[in-house]
Structure formats: C-alpha cells, structure tokens
Write a structure and sequence with these properties.
The chain has about 325 residues and is mainly β. It is built from 3 helices and 23 strands.
Length: about 325
C-alpha cells in the first residue's frame, strides 16, 4: 500500500509538471502590406498569426534573417529600420537592431530586447487574428529594379558573416521568466509556416519561399521633390517632425508633414495632367511621387500645396522622365 501511494504521487507530480509548460503553437509568419515609397525605399510588415483559434499563445520575442533578391537590390547597400509605432506587440513592441550582410544579401533583424520586467515578462497575445510584428523600411543606396524582391525568411544561423535564423519565443499563458522557443532544428510539436511554406528540418535551401502576394519589383516613374516649409525649418537642411509633434498616430521621426503635389499642363496650366498626389515631406525636405510610365515625356508645371503655406509653382515647366528630380529654392 505504501508503494502504491508513492507511485500515485510520482504520476501526479509528472502530470502537473507537464501542464506547467506551454504547448507548441501552430503559427504563420509572413510578409504583407508591401509598397514602394520611392524607387530606393521599400516598406513591408512582418505579420504573425495562430493558424487555428486553439493555437493562440503569448509571444515574447521575435528575430529574423531576411534574404533579399540579389538582382532586386541591384548591387546597392541596404539600410533597414523598424517603423516604431506600427508594431502591435505589447509593451515595447519590436525594437530589434538591424545589420546588413552584403555577402549573403541578407538583413539581420535581431531579437527585440528589454522585455523581462520586475515580475515575469512582457508578452503579446497572438490569436488567429494577425498582428504586426514590425514594419520594416529598407533604404537602398541605388534604385531597386523591376525584378521581384523575393524576400525569404532564413532558417540557418551563421557566425561570420552574421546570418540570424528566424526564431520566436512564447508562453501559452501567464508569461514568466521561463519560456518556450521555436527555432529551426528544435523538436517542435506545432506547425510553423513562413510565407506559406511549412518549415521542416530537412528544408533543402535553408530559407522559406517568397510571399506570393507581396513580391513586385519597382517599374514605375518617380518624381523626387525637394522643398522646405518655412515654419518648420530649423536650419542645416532639417525641419521639425511636425506630424509626430502633433500626436498623429504612426507618425515617424523622419516625417515633417503631408503635402499635395499637382502636375499641370505646360500648355494649359488649368489642366491637370494627373490627379493630385498626396505624399509625405521628410524632415530633410524630400518627397516622392510614384507615377505611371505613361506620363513620361509630359511637360508640366509642378505645384506644391500645404495646408498652412502659400501654393508654390515651379519656375518653369518640367519634362517628366523615368527618374525626375526637382528642387524648389530654399
């Protein structure tokens, strides 16, 4: 009888210890909402969702290695940054650092940090409703090409040159200092999908597929404008980040304000050759307008509107090319 009681106690202890750990979730990580804000600037969201309502979990950290299409980057140097305020992760959101690995044409997005608090840690609930892990802004030292970005998640780590594998950590409920992790090579009880590809330890190339719906090259006409708004100008080619100062949601520190650009016919200024273009004027005075290729060769006046400034016209008509730059006098 004593032996029986001891055996029951051991079984009960084993059962309790197993239920105290998180269950491996089934999860999808993918790129979405991609767009070009200029010929050399590309933005996209890294999204995450539980594949089923029953696989919801509490996300703690995220890191990724992102392969970029070699032909797409056009031999340029990539600078990456996270658009702070877009992340839907709790607490500090995603705040990892970035490093460009030119050898592999890969962006390292390191793990977000400072998530352990005085008690437990900061975690984000991930359900079957997608959340934004981070909005990433890629700036190229040259223009991107018409070929597809082919952005793929990396599965294989490397030290030199640094190549971070895509990983995340979580707790099922009641986030504590202890947590579970997904990383390639770990025995994993859930299903992990990256851009729609289900990860397996025998993956042939060590990377995911590219996003089927967010994989378009840059082939449109670009008009780059340089202008400064007097009321925001603080000298040395810089303006105040007026949108952020005004408390506008998701406004970034490099954005000065919104403007509207009009292109009016050189022969008849009353006629718009293209609908008005709303865009963002950066704190360094740059604004970009993306136009259809059909407008190439059109001669037009460039007109700049701002809600609290005088309407300003170019001194002369400008002929639009595939890459047109125009600077209003400072």
């Amino acid at each position: 009888m004593k032996f029986y009681k001891i055996l029951c106690s051991v079984l009960l202890l084993t059962l309790v210890s197993r239920t105290s750990y998180a269950v491996d979730p089934s999860v999808s990580v993918y790129i979405d909402h991609a767009f070009y804000s200029s010929a050399h600037t590309y933005e996209f969201d890294i999204m995450m969702k539980a594949n089923t309502p029953t696989s919801s979990f509490q996300l703690r950290t995220f890191q990724a290695g992102l392969y970029l299409g070699t032909a797409w980057t056009n031999g340029g140097t990539i600078t990456a940054q996270s658009e702070d305020s877009y992340s839907e992760m709790s607490g500090l959101g995603y705040n990892g650092a970035f490093q460009w690995n030119a050898t592999d044409n890969l962006v390292n997005c390191s793990v977000n940090y400072d998530l352990i608090g005085p008690v437990g840690c900061i975690a984000s609930t991930v359900s079957s409703t997608p959340i934004v892990i981070a909005r990433i802004r890629l700036s190229n030292s040259v223009d991107f090409t018409c070929l597809a970005p082919d952005i793929k998640f990396n599965y294989v780590s490397n030290i030199s040159p640094l190549r971070l594998r895509t990983t995340f950590s979580w707790r099922e409920t009641g986030c504590t200092v202890n947590y579970e992790m997904f990383y390639p090579g770990r025995t994993y009880g859930g299903t992990a999908q990256f851009n729609g590809e289900t990860y397996t330890s025998g993956d042939a190339d060590g990377r995911s597929t590219a996003s089927a719906t967010n994989n378009t090259g840059f082939c449109l006409t670009q008009l780059a404008i340089t202008a400064f708004i007097e009321g925001f100008y603080i000298g040395s080619g810089q303006m105040q980040p007026n949108l952020r100062n005004a408390g506008i949601a998701h406004a970034q520190s490099y954005q000065a304000d919104t403007i509207i650009v009009e292109l009016r016919s050189a022969g008849n200024p009353a006629v718009l050759v293209y609908p008005p273009i709303p865009t963002i004027l950066s704190t360094t005075g740059e604004a970009y307008c993306i136009l259809p290729n059909s407008i190439i060769g059109t001669s037009c006046w460039i007109v700049l509107h701002h809600r609290n400034s005088v309407e300003t016209w170019s001194a002369n008509p400008i002929t639009i090319t595939s890459r047109t730059s125009f600077a209003f006098a400072q």
